[in-house]
Amino acid sequence: MIELEGLTKRYGEKVAVNNLSFTVRPGIVTGFLGPNGAGKSTTMRMILGLDHPTAGSVRIDGKHYHQLKEPLTYIGALLEAKAWHGGRTAYNHLLCLAQSNGIARSRVREVLETVGLTAVARKKTKGFSMGMGQRLGIAAALLGDPRILMFDEPVNGLDPEGIHWIRTLMKSLAAQGRTVFVSSHLMSEMALTAEHLVVIGQGRLLADTSMADFIARNSRSYVRVRSPQRERMLDVLHQAGIVAVESGDGVLEVDGGKAELVGELAARHGLTLHELSPQQASLEEAFMQLTAESVEYHAHSETSPPPPQQQWGDGWKRG
Amino acid sequence: MSSPQPQMPQAAPSWEAAPGAAHPASGAAHPAPGSPYPGYTSPIPVVRTHLGHAIASEWTKIRSVRSTMWTLGVFVLLVVGIGLLTGVVVSSSSSDLAGENALSLGFFGLLLGSMCIITLGVLTTASEYGTGMIRTTMVACPSRGRVLAAKAIVFFLVAFVVTLVSSSVVAFLHVAMLADNGAKDPTGGEWLKGTVGIALYIALLGLLSLVVGSIIRHSAGAITIMIGTVLAPLVIALFMFSESLEAVRDALFEYSIPNQLSVFYANSLSQSGPSGWDPLWIILGVTAVAFGGAFALLEKRDV
Ligand SMILES: Nc1ncnc2c1ncn2[C@@H]1O[C@H](COP(=O)(O)OP(=O)(O)O)[C@@H](O)[C@H]1O
Ligand SMILES: [Mg+2]
């Protein structure tokens, strides 16, 4: 379990992380979503005790990171940037990490096998491709068989097969009861792996919700309607109290999941339909809208009220 | 190159709550200290880590990069090579060393070789910042002081042993080669200063470089600073012609690192200034102060 309380980080004038409070629970994959520069990596560095918070605190199973006596068995992390000496072999890199935490040598071979780097274990890491580098970073994270795993943008630089592999890995780690915290700037990636979602923008918490909830709230569903008798169709919908908007090409968009209702109305009035299709706006769009609003809120915080999104996390927490 | 994921996915543990339920609100009070947190428990036995683990780790690090072999290899080559060369030149010339200390010819090789030890010292700390390794290191060992201490111990021992062995080899060679030129047999005290003493001094100079590397966090910058520290006082002193600056010039000269090195061979280039074992206490003091500063900065700064 990772608990953040009012976590804040300022670099000079720049507020990279702004009063973040949330909890990452064990047993599920928690996605940490935000556009580039939102403060994800900074938050993760503070969790690992690398950067000192300007304010607030973060605890790992109730302890500060520097209080952990055997950190690698508690928490394993894949950091954003390459974090090793290119002149050292993969085996020696993992060996020096294992030794610093009293982990047996046999475990080094095990994790190399797990990530599929056994064949290049004795090669210098500077020759590694980006994908191999990610695998080495993941091997280091798994070394201590930790209770908590943190991955900063793990799919960066991986090929489709590697991406599939890491999704499966994260889910199986969570299914074993571990805490899995993974960051990404891609909503589509999160939708496939995460069960819970924490969204930040400009260092602020925008949402802390289950993925199912997020999808239900954010993917606007509507019905596309095309009819040769467009004007009469609009009248009929209007009389029934249904709001429809024209979206060009003679297409009407009806908000909500009302396909059955529209079809029945058309039949009752003898109207021809060329199309009646339920649609969903993409999650990526919803995410962009959410973070765009955070930028606006940030800019006009003196004058405009906070957008309703600010309360999402709270509403969900009450429920 | 990928392999199937060997870890067997298990059924979700029974305590796993339905998403959204029973989630503590952010900022809620923590469970009492010591209360068990749910989650995965590894079958691997947990080890309480201590300085010994960090030392083992640093030993693996220092022996597994090529720069260590390069710097130490060149060091041995310079010390032994230049030592042999000066020995051959002096013994084949008809110069009379009446009553002089044969060990003192080791000075030139060690002065040049010290650049290699300085480089290795700096790289031990600063290169981790260049490569990003420092983040991995500090995540694996959050006690920053322990990391610095382990690096210092491992580096100091390596530098001391290598310097002791090479300076001893050169010392034996010189005494044997120059016996016919009238050089006197060194006393026990002179042997100790010319081998153990000089090795301690060079290893401490390397340790100071390691500490400077940790403060500067930039390899080239720290190496430049250290080489400047070794050479600059001597060079500046050479250009101080004015009479009024004589005191400053003499001090710069006497306390310059090359002159301090020569004190170990009891042939200081000047009559006043450090003598006997003084240079060792001086560099010990300077290194201790720098170490304290590096430690404080390490705790205070972000990695
Ligand atoms: N060490 C640093 N010094 C100054 N600014 C930083 C530093 N690290 C991050 N930042 C700034 O903080 C913001 C958040 O960065 P980051 O945490 O890397 O975002 P993300 O990982 O979400 O893309 C960015 O604007 C970045 O420029
Ligand atoms: Mg990032």
Automatic annotation (TrEMBL), chain A:
User: Per its UniProt record, what PROSITE patterns does this chain match?
Assistant: ABC_TRANSPORTER_2 (PS50893)
SMART domains according to UniProt: AAA (SM00382)
InterPro entries associated with the record:
AAA+_ATPase, ABC_transporter-like_ATP-bd, P-loop_NTPase
Task: Show the segment(s) annotated as Disordered.
Answer: 296-319
One MF term in the entry's GO annotations: ATP binding
Q: Which SUPFAM superfamilies match?
A: P-loop containing nucleoside triphosphate hydrolases
* Keywords assigned by UniProt, alphabetized: ATP-binding, Nucleotide-binding, Transport
**Keyword Transport recorded:** yes
What family does this belong to? Belongs to the ABC transporter superfamily.
**Protein name from the UniProt record:** Nodulation ABC transporter NodI
